[in-house]
Amino acid sequence: DIQMTQSPSSLSASVGDSVTITCRASQSISRYLCWFQHKAGKAPKLLIYAASTLQSGVPSRFSGSGSGTDFTLTINSLQPEDFATYYCQQTYSVPQTFGQGTKVEVK
Amino acid sequence: EVELLESGGGLIQPGGSLRLSCATSGFTFSNFALSWVRQAPGKGLEWVSVISASGGNRYYADSVQGRFTISRDNSRNTLYLQMNALRGEDTALYYCAKLAVAHSTGDFDSWGQGTLVTVSS
Q1: Residue B70 in contact with residue B53, Cβ under 8 Å?
Q2: Which chain A residues are closer than 8 Å to B61 by Cβ?
């Protein structure tokens, strides 16, 4: 199975800040990577697929990059609604493993 | 609008069985693969199982292999998860998710709100 390692596990930020979350795969997954936003009690929301393609309706302050084993999610100008937990997931092979999550909290 | 609505969760004793359902609408059900993902209390997301659009390919996490069975009824637009020999570590919020493709690997572009399964005596 492919292991996905996210860092940091949590971070504190203020509205208007830029934050970056990293995700590393245990083997090359090309660009088969998604990012999700998850708020407690709600359905996870697809933000980015194919490492850098923004899902329809997702604000442009979200961006993704990377290929192979190393990937990043950047949120520019953090908004109040962005405080949540973010997960990466590889879509290269079954089982489609997730990273352990990064909780973005209010500083 | 795509909608997925899970049901069937509840409190069950260890060793018991439960069947989860995921009723869907807003898309051509038979064209897309579907998956189950769970989140144990205080933990992250864990991929559980996937079934291809035709139902011909099914895959499971090692942690549930041999105990859980995924199935779909393309005439009812509904996904199922039969869970047998339940353990405490199966306690979780179970989500169904729609893939953006027909085959077994792909982007999870829509999710339900989840149904809670609690395994306890």
Answers
A1: no
A2: 95
